[in-house]
Amino acid sequence: MATPHITAEKGDFAPAVLMPGDPKRAQRMAEALLTDARKVTDVRGIGGYTGLYRGKPLSVMASGMGQPSLAIYATELYSFYDVERIVRVGTMGGLAADASPGDVVIALGAHTDSSIVGGVVPGIHFSATASWNLLRAAVEAAGDDPQVKVGTVVSRDRFYGNPIEQTKRLAEIGTLGVEMEAAGLYTIAAELGKEALAVLTISDLLFDPSRDMTAEERESKFSKALSIAAAAAVG
């Protein structure tokens, strides 16, 4: 069985999938985490891998950038490959005054400027939130680590050109960071009766760019978020 964007056979994916945006990061995650890993799909360079993590089946697959791209892969995994849980593992720009590059945010919910949440319930502003079981498991895996925070993020459609006053206001109401996928993932999971979570590493600070990670660091410094996400996914 194949979908327009995934060439895997039914049963090739584990019930739980870790989903970074970057295909290179997905490959690196699979190599770092999984034993007996095998590539199960590679359409358009978006690799998917399945193996074992601590003796339990786990898959890793990239989503590409942005909510529309993620929505395609999440919908196909949930709908055609019996995937029950997707945990996004990615980077984001930090908004909190006490944030530092390398901090991890477990996204309780995601504001968004995207139309992807529109029409889920006509006449209602849908709240894109994480699944409780995954959220609880991630918080338990993080323990008392002071570098791990739980709170809301914002998922934007545009990387450039966002109003600075809007960004400041988001920070004022406690939004911990800006990224581009979580709200879409939470929305698709809710629509299909599945589970979803985002565990995000702060790679840059929107109000202090002098401390931003390099491109190389963005690809490699995700070990803490990855271990939390993996523990939640298989737990």
Account of the 3D structure:
This protein is an alpha/beta fold. The protein has one domain: Nucleoside phosphorylase domain (Rossmann fold, 3-Layer(aba) Sandwich), CATH 3.40.50. Helix content is 31%, strand content 28%. It has helices at residues 23-33, 67-80, 132-142, 164-172, 182-192, 215-220, 223-234; strands at residues 16-19, 35-41, 48-53, 56-61, 85-94, 104-112, 128-129, 148-155, 177-179, 195-205. A five-stranded mixed beta barrel has the order 5-9-8-6-10, surrounded by four helices. A hairpin with a 6-residue loop joins β2 and β3 (48-53). α2 runs parallel beside α5 (182-192) and α3 packs across α7. The longest helix is centred in the N-terminal third of the chain and has 14 residues, at 67-80. It is globular and about 50 Å long. It starts with 15 loop residues before the first strand and ends with a helix. The mean pLDDT is 92.
